[in-house]
Amino acid sequence: MTTNNLVLSGTITRSRRFKSPAGVAHSVIMLEHKSQRYEADMLRNVYVQIQVILSGPRFESVAEDLKAGVEVQVQGFMTLQQGRNGQNRLVIHAENVELKT
């Protein structure tokens, strides 16, 4: 099975935009998610901070709205990305984004 699909909502804490050498527009946001979920019949606090990458022309119409403090829901797939320090981290590559505010 090859399922890799994630839906996560939260607040943008940082954002930046750039174009690749090939001219593809990218927005990179840091998404902060806070909630409470039940696990083993006990309520637990959940906190996640994860980078989300939005690439291509379909996100250009919302790119200017992706600023710190904006609430969004993203849907996409997860992958490993190697940072400049050589450390691997999980990131979300968005396939859809919905502004909540």
UniProtKB/TrEMBL annotation:
InterPro entries, A to Z: NA-bd_OB-fold, Primosome_PriB/ssb, Prisomal_replication_PriB
Record's keyword terms, sorted: DNA replication, DNA-binding, Primosome
Keyword DNA-binding: yes
Pfam families hit by this protein: SSB_1
Function: Involved in the restart of stalled replication forks, which reloads the replicative helicase on sites other than the origin of replication; the PriA-PriB pathway is the major replication restart pathway. During primosome assembly it facilitates complex formation between PriA and DnaT on DNA; stabilizes PriA on DNA. Stimulates the DNA unwinding activity of PriA helicase.
Family membership noted in the UniProt record: Belongs to the PriB family.
HAMAP family: PriB
Subunit organization: Homodimer. Interacts with PriA and DnaT. Component of the replication restart primosome. Primosome assembly occurs via a 'hand-off' mechanism. PriA binds to replication forks, subsequently PriB then DnaT bind; DnaT then displaces ssDNA to generate the helicase loading substrate.
The protein's name: Replication restart protein PriB
Species: Shewanella vaxholmensis
